[in-house]
Amino acid sequence: MTYVVAISNEKGGVAKTTTALSLGGALARLGKKVLMIDLDAQANLTLALGIPPARVSLGSNDVLLASVALQDCIQSSPISGLDIVPSNTKIELVEQLLPVYINYADRLKNAIAEALPLPYEFIILDCPPALGAVTRNALTAAHLLLIPTQAEFFSAYALRNMMQMIQTVRREGNPYLSYRILVTMFDRRNRAHRDIYKQLKNTFKDGLFSTVIEVDTKLRESPISGVPITHYTPKSRGAQQYRALAEELIRYAQEK
Amino acid sequence: MTYVVAISNEKGGVAKTTTALSLGGALARLGKKVLMIDLDAQANLTLALGIPPARVSLGSNDVLLASVALQDCIQSSPISGLDIVPSNTKIELVEQLLPVYINYADRLKNAIAEALPLPYEFIILDCPPALGAVTRNALTAAHLLLIPTQAEFFSAYALRNMMQMIQTVRREGNPYLSYRILVTMFDRRNRAHRDIYKQLKNTFKDGLFSTVIEVDTKLRESPISGVPITHYTPKSRGAQQYRALAEELIRYAQEK
Ligand SMILES: Nc1ncnc2c1ncn2[C@@H]1O[C@H](COP(=O)(O)OP(=O)(O)OP(=O)(O)O)[C@@H](O)[C@H]1O
Ligand SMILES: Nc1ncnc2c1ncn2[C@@H]1O[C@H](COP(=O)(O)OP(=O)(O)OP(=O)(O)O)[C@@H](O)[C@H]1O
Ligand SMILES: [Mg+2]
Ligand SMILES: [Mg+2]
Description:
- By secondary structure, chain A is of the alpha/beta class.
- The first copy, chain A, has 11 helices and 7 strands.
- Helix content of chain A is 43%, strand content 14%.
- In chain A, helix 1 crosses helix 11 and helix 5 crosses helix 6.
- Chains A and B meet through helix 2, helix 4 and helix 7 of A and helix 2, helix 4 and helix 7 of B.
- Bound molecules: adenosine-5'-triphosphate (2 copies) and magnesium ion (2 copies).
- The site of one magnesium ion has 4 residues of chain A, from helix 1.
């Protein structure tokens, strides 16, 4: 069984890519085989695994737009157990061109279904900071939507649009989509962070992962070396917290 | 003369909205009349001025898509000297529908030109974290592109796409577009921040504002009260740094 996790939030800069990279690394360290799919024109996940986006020939936009088979776009990464379908910056066109296809929201889901069986226990989708056609594809293809959120005003507000998008996707193509919110870049010393975190727990209850990711400057540094934090500084707080998240995700996926 | 400043960066969470809000507030405190235009579906700038996005009737997408006159979409804000054209979440549709118009990139530029003369010395455009049709409109309408950037790996990398976008816009509709990079959320104690800031100065030289905005938790709090930092805590470091930025911008606009 391949479990698909979409990492998405319309709010920018909430650690979507950092979570995809770190969670992928942590799952690989726990012996899981993982496929990452970079759906963002910024190609940050591709870059963070040491792959120059300008040199990508077949990427995720070829799967979405040109119906290239998913298997043909998979590259290995420097991390054992971790493969990637990279992004190339042409994906900006995808936002404009995808909606001309009938049932355009199903293209990624169908591409994954046609590629099965795949040797991966997890597929992780890194999304752009928008709720457009590409993110819609990711949510339609996913079992779980993981929503990274900062404990800050604009980020908390963004959850309204995300909840609406989940309702739309459940109605129109993926009735079993579930979600979990992950609080990221948390600073225990900051009163506003503590207050908003309490509000999120009150509002969303079990909709929150119990793991919280705190601020750790090592998480900023690991992409520069082209590796996840779990392979950069395995004993750091960031690596330990993302390992705890990976274990929580594995338990969650098994229950479903 | 109305000077138009677009605040844009494909990278998410680099303080585009915080800069629009704070710079607008600082210019108003210096006696300038300012119009803010919220071009982001997240409607964070609208929200930060205390206007509930769900209650917006005429917004920026009506200017872009339905050719409603700009003047008809202007609302006053709680801050004297600061008006706003709010955003409503329908702007997601704008990304998909705008490209069907001929010369779609000129629609905002033409809407502003048709509304002149306007009683504003500055117009500030807050953009979504993407380089799509809406951002293209903002850059075509602007005299200056202000690029907020964190001194971090992914943010610095995003500048490549921004530079390419500037070249495209200069070729196709706005030959005099200039740009200035603003380093935001800077933490002097962080070695990676200091290193990347040095690299940005070496690469971009005069392309950087001399003002740097440091981390200040008051900047996270002011939007909750619906006011810019200059009206929330005028003596805070954030308010002082954005006031210095406003003075630098006024000097820059006068030279041009
Ligand atoms: N826990 C953390 N501690 C410190 N820095 C972090 C942490 N998580 C992420 N960062 C940094 O914050 C910035 C934003 O993170 P990231 O780019 O992963 O967010 P994103 O949601 O993917 O952004 P975008 O919306 O542009 O796709 C990056 O520079 C990253 O290195
Ligand atoms: N100098 C600063 N010090 C501390 N926090 C800051 C600072 N500038 C911005 N922030 C906070 O960082 C977060 C990101 O800022 P903001 O939302 O303005 O970025 P943005 O680029 O507009 O994001 P998006 O890409 O989603 O539009 C917000 O929670 C904001 O309050
Ligand atoms: Mg990202
Ligand atoms: Mg913003």
